[in-house]
Amino acid sequence: MLDSSTNSTTNDKQPDEKKSFDTIQPAMSNMETPTIVILTPAADEPMFADFWQFNFNQLSCKFAEFDIRVIGAPWMTTPLASDRSRSFIYIANLAWGYHYQPDRWNAWLRDWPKDISLINSPSLLLWNTQKTYLQHLQKVGVRTIPTLYVEHVNEEVLVDAANHFNVSDLIVKQQISACSFNILRVLVGSDDFASAPRSMCPAEAVAELTRLDAIHSPMMIQPFMPSIVQEGEISIFMFNGKVSHGVRSNTQPDDYRVQFEHGGVTTAQKELSTEMLELALAAINACPELPVYARIDMIRDVSTGHFCIMEVELIEPNLFLEHAPDGGTSFARAILQASGLLNYNE
């Protein structure tokens, strides 16, 4: 029942003011200067409607420094019919909510026209969509959280996983997910729920996955890492292979999730240790190609004392540009360099 291969979601700032999608999407026309199209959630997606525009405006200001025009478009509507000159450059990094429609997302990536620029590349986005990519990282020697991959979850699978890891505290999540989507904390053979906030027993977990219509979804199971509540998650941002900045995300006392939606708080991590930087670089080097933008999430494995990779986010990571020393200019520069609009020494 268990895949014997083992491997060794963020805080979003609320916008100061809300803007409708139409107010930030100017009329499109063919222009000599390429246009940046930032892919966004569906226009009617309620979960992200309140804050994706903040990130969009943040990015737009950075491209404006290079006199580059920026528009937004829901990812499933692109490439745009008005892009007849193939002069638009598409960036996937605000395509929040793709995990709600994984089949549509995968098909969209496979059908992306080869003569239209999408960053990161369609093949890299496909590789990063299902978290089984962590198996590849582990195989090439990158430290990752020990993980079991299963086709579905039931009580027996959870008991087997706890025995496999020799722990009673587990994390269960879908292989295609984001923002702690449908993540569960499960105690097996223990009833110490008071010291494990928001945890549940195996029977409750199965019932909850059934309620969420995720009981037959491919899942991943990991031992719970106490360091997530003790010292938080470290994220390092790399643009064209160069480190831009780092952040630390911490949970609320009564939760184990670091994302904004769950009360998580993110602050600048000004000091990045040699171990953190080497692990981030190893993860980037293990990708099928160099990502133009990447967020590498890591956490300390208390059993070894070393940091290990939680995720390498290449699709739509919150970039936390408010914590970048240059406010995100290096991100815009990396996009323009990858698109051939700037030389790599500019």
TrEMBL record:
Pfam families: RimK. InterPro entries: ATP-grasp_RimK-type (IPR013651), DcsG_Biosynth_Enzyme (IPR053191). This is ATP-grasp fold RimK-type domain-containing protein. Residues 1-21 are annotated as: Disordered. Residues 209-303 form the ATP-grasp fold RimK-type domain. It comes from Adineta ricciae (Rotifer). Gene3D superfamilies: ATP-grasp fold, B domain. Residues 1-12 have a biased composition (Polar residues).
